[in-house]
Structure formats: C-alpha cells, structure tokens
Design brief:
Blueprint: H1 6-15, E1 19-20, E2 26-27, E3 96-104, E4 109-114, E5 119-120, E6 125-129, E7 134-140, E8 144-151, E9 159-161, E10 167-175, E11 182-186, E12 189-193, E13 197-199, E14 201-205, E15 212-216, E16 224-225, E17 230-232, E18 238-246, E19 253-261, E20 271-273, E21 276-279, E22 286-293, E23 297-303, E24 306-311, E25 314-325, E26 333-340, E27 345-352, E28 358-365, E29 372-383, E30 390-393, E31 396-398, E32 407-411, E33 414-416, E34 422-426, E35 429-441, E36 449-457, E37 464-472, E38 478-486, E39 495-497, E40 499-503, E41 512-514
Length: 534
Amino acid sequence: MARAPMALLCLAIACGGGAAAPGGASVGGAQGGGTRSTDAGTPAEDGGLDAGSSGNDGGFSGADGGSSGADGGAPAADAGPPDGGGGLSPDAGSGTRTITVILRGTGSGRVISTPAGIDCGATCSASFDSRSSVTLIEVADVASTFDGWVGACSGIAACVVAGGGDTTVEATFEARPPQQISVAISPPTATVSAGSRQQFSATVSGTADAAVLWSVREGASGGSVDASGLYLAPSSAGTFHVVATSRADPSRSAAAVVTVTSSGPTYPARLDMAAFDSTLSVGELSLDATGKGSRRIGKLSLSASAGTVEIDGVALPAIAFERQPFAAPSTITAYELVSVAADRMYLLWIYCVPGATITQLWVESTAGEGLTSEIASGSCTDVFKASTPRLRAPAVSMSWPSADRGFSVSGTAIDLPARAPGTVQYDGVKQVAFHFATVDCSFCGGGGWYELHSLLWNPQTSAVTFGIFYLMIAGGPVLFEYTLSMPVLGRGPAATYTASWSRSAASSAASLVMATPMPMARPFPEGASTIPAQ
C-alpha cells in the first residue's frame, strides 16, 4: 500500500485538516459530521504512517454512511479537534482576568482603576484584558487617610497590577482624628486707664473660618468691644476679660485679661518751665516779615526768622520754623511760628506772598481759645538759606490744655480718648498727649483729613513737643508731623501709628475749624496732595 508523503503529513499537522490524502480521504478532520478513526496507524520504517494498518483501513465515515477510499490514510494522533483547528491557534494566551478590590480599615474612601472598570465602593470587581496592566488609585475621604495596599501591591503609591490571572487587592483607609480648633488672642494681657481704648486681635487655627465674635465676659460693666477687637474700658477700675470666640466652633475661645486703672496717665498738676534762651537750626528758611493783624494780633516783626509778635496787647518772643507753599497756581506760602507767654503757648501761621504782602494770620493757643483767623497787612521776604532763630522765653506756669472733644484714636502705641489726655509712644518714650484744637480739612486733596493739634509732655525730661496728628479719611496710618520741642528747641522726627480712629461727637465750636474759604496751606501731611489753591 502506498505511503502518504512525509511532507504532506507535516503540512496536515501544522495547518489543520483540509489536505487531501491519496484515495480521496480528508486528512485531519471529518467532513459533514463524520467520526475520526481511532486507529491512527503505525509508523512505517521510513517514518511515515501506514495508511492501511488499521482494521478500518484508516478511513473516515461520512454523515451519509459512505466511507473514504480504500487506501485513505489516517490522520496523525495529534491532528487537532474535529472543527478543523488542529495545531496552535494564532491568539493562544489571550483572554480576560478579574481584579477585585476589598476596602478595609476604620476610615472611608474610594479606589478607581485605569482603564475604567473599578470604582470601589460602588463597583469593586471588574474584568480586564489579561495581557495588560491595570493601575489602581486610592482617594481618601476628608476625614480619613490612606494606610496602604495589601496583596498585589504594598505601600501607599498607586497600585499597578501587571498582566496575568485573577487578582485581589486590599486598600486600607483609617479614620483621621478630628482637627481641634483653637483661638489665640493678642495681647494676652493689657493695662489701660479708665475710658481709654486697647486694640486686640485674634488668630484661629484648625479651620478655614478665621472669624471670631468679640465680647466682654463681665458685660457692660466691664466695658465694650467692637467687631474689630477695639476695646473701650469702663469708667471704673477693675479686672475684666475680653473674649474672642470662634465662629466655626463656639465652644472654642480665648480671653485677654485687662486691668483698668482708675485714672489716666500721670502728669504734674501744672506745666512749670523755667525761662529759657535757645536757638533752632532751620535749614533753607530765613524769613523777614513786618505787619499787623486786624483783631487779636498787633505788631509783627521778624528778622532772619526771629522777633516778636503782639497778641492780645502783649508783645511776646516768636520764631518761624516751618514753610509750606500753597498749591499752584496760588503764590501764597504759609509760615508757622511759635510764641511763648507766661501762662500759655501759641502757634501762629502767616499767609504771605513772598517778596510782597502779608494777607492773613491764624492763631491758636494751649489755653483752648481755638484756631482763629484775621485779615492782616504787611510785607514779607523769604530767603532760601539756613538760619538759627533765637527764642528768649519767659518762665512758664500754665494749666494743661483741655482735651478737645469729638475724636478718639486707638492703636498699639497711641491712645487719644475724647475729652481726656492720652498717651503716645514718641521718640522712644511714652508721652502724655493733650489734643487741644481740631481742623477739618475733609475737602483737601488726597481724600481729605482731620488735624488734631496737640502738645506732648515727656515724663523723663519734662520737655514739651508741639505737633499735629493727621487722621486720613481715606484710611492708612495716623501721622504725627510738624513737630517742635522746648525748652531745648529741636525738630523731632515725624511718626506713623497703626491705629483706628472715630469721630464720636461734634467737636467744640471754638476748636473745630473748617479750613475754608481760605484753606490752611501749611498743615497738610507730608507726602499728601497739596491743599487746593484759594
């Protein structure tokens, strides 16, 4: 019997059924539902298969009962399944696998997959291509933290599950202890005089809501505090508590201990100052002026910024120490003078067209007459050169200025209550401040301001300092400028204070002056817009 060629049998094994063997048999698979012979035949000596060695002659039975040719060769034993797919399939190793996530721990969170499929809590198991890797990402809830992976991954980084079979991964979330809200208040203690003010601030941690509610533990008897933390002490002495309460958690608060003393700052009953003879170095100002006013001010005479001025019929020594031009196109310049009497001190302003005429005079004093103006006449010459005016002042014994009412100022280094002497840290010393006159310059350039004309007393040296506090209507720090100290004449430094201020009542008619219709040119704060021209 003829043997099937070896090459043909190898093709049948490698490629599946469908090749015709001699005699018409289909090698490798039955056609039309036929059954495969159980006797695959025995090998011949030359390595082939003996097609006629089986009892059934290696044939296949077709569905119609017909048989293959008499010498039809039988297929090899590993010829493949009856569907004709003998040999290895081109997609061998492909398929899906299941990845399952288990959430553990006392906290809560989610695990999501890339590619999509798992979003656990809701969907914790999904099928993925077994040949591809899957990345699992944890998302802890607000009150929880992720504690790590167990199983296919470890640690807390994203879990990358490589291709392969079914896999289970555990994700552990632990509950996070609730963050405690705390409140701190600054300063934690303060000592203030009755009726004075103290600024407090509060810091809230443990929450995004930093707001606090302010209160005084003792109620109205312990004073009051506004929404910004500005405390107003009561009129009686005692120990009280200013409280800041967290808005986010009203069970959390902090309190500052406030000691209220029965009196304000300490100072002598009167200001007594021995006669003095002092000179002042004035750069680039040498004023010659001769003239007179029309009411309180009589003869005025200055040479090189020093001379005399007659006020209420009394000739007094005076010096000029400050120059301030009006805004263009005006040609007027204001010159500030100081004069000393036995029972009070004066500040004056001369309005003058340099090299021409004196037009107006302003005068105020520590005795509280208020700031007044009058028409004036005369001439003035301003030479831009240094001068050293000399002030020969008489002995002074005077009452302290009566505190002007209407404005109060409070900050960490300044406390100017209405109707009472205050304190201010100036030139390194806590000094007593007497605010004795007010100017309304609310229409002036740069948003406008109010001026508190004041006298400071230094408890260490007994020296006094004139100066002007500027309360800027548009906001910003309180300024203290245009200073002059006595008995040793000197120009102290300008100062700024972080403070709040309020106009609590109408100022006295004698002291509150609208700087109109002829606005004061000199007392505008350094760096502010110039005052409008007349």
